[in-house]
């Protein structure tokens, strides 16, 4: 069994791993182990680099037979996070993500060394987890038991090239759009219900960066 520690930003990402991704990877002999960033018992969030470094170090150096990856949103990252300021000046979503991840990996490698970093799979969700849910507006509406919102969700989806490019301002980030249309939207609960309804194949088809991340983990081999 190949083990992968997944450092999650919050309960939404953690629940998505447990309820959606874990089963798909278990069939491949890959065991995903999600945990919220920071000290056990808190609710995640506040994704500062110092906290990430502590958690990655604990996984890579404390468990040398396992891999480690990250699952956090670009939206809401503190400006002092490695690469965030430079990423703001990039044009495309891919350029922003690559800029951030390259800077993050460089900083981690300085602290942890190249040998440990060979077991690290960097990932940032563009721009926010809830963007993935717009992969299928009809099933999103069904999954959160708000079928009357299907057309509104479809209108949002059609404004963007992919769900991953739904933008990241405090007013128009994917979760903010959902909350505006459905005040009762609960991120961890409804996020997982919608993702289950949509299905992983549909999300992967629509969201290329997310699909690439999963493909990288699917290709992992046992640590030598």
TrEMBL record:
Q: What InterPro entries does the record point to?
A: DUF4276
What name does UniProt use for this protein? DUF4276 family protein
Show the Pfam families listed in the entry: DUF4276
């Amino acid at each position: 069994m190949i083990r992968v520690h997944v450092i999650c930003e919050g309960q939404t990402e953690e629940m998505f791993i447990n309820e959606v991704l874990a089963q798909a990877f278990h069939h491949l002999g890959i065991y995903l182990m999600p945990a919220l960033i920071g000290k056990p018992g808190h609710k995640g969030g506040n994704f500062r680099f110092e906290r990430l470094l502590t958690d990655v170090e604990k996984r890579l150096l404390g468990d040398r037979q396992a891999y480690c990856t990250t699952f956090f949103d670009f939206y809401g990252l503190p400006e002092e996070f490695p690469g965030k300021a430079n990423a703001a000046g990039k044009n495309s979503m891919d350029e922003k993500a690559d800029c951030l991840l390259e800077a993050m990996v460089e900083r981690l490698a300085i602290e942890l060394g190249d040998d440990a970093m060979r077991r690290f799979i960097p990932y940032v969700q563009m721009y926010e987890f809830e963007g993935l849910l717009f992969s299928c507006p009809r099933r999103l509406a069904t999954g959160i038991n708000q079928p009357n919102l299907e057309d509104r969700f479809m209108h949002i989806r059609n404004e963007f090239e992919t769900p991953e490019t739904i933008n990241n301002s405090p007013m128009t980030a994917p979760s903010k759009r959902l909350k505006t249309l459905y005040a009762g939207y609960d991120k961890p609960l409804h996020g997982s219900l919608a993702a289950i309804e949509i299905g992983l194949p549909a999300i992967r088809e629509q969201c290329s960066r997310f699909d690439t991340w999963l493909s990288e983990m699917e290709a992992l081999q046992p640590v030598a």
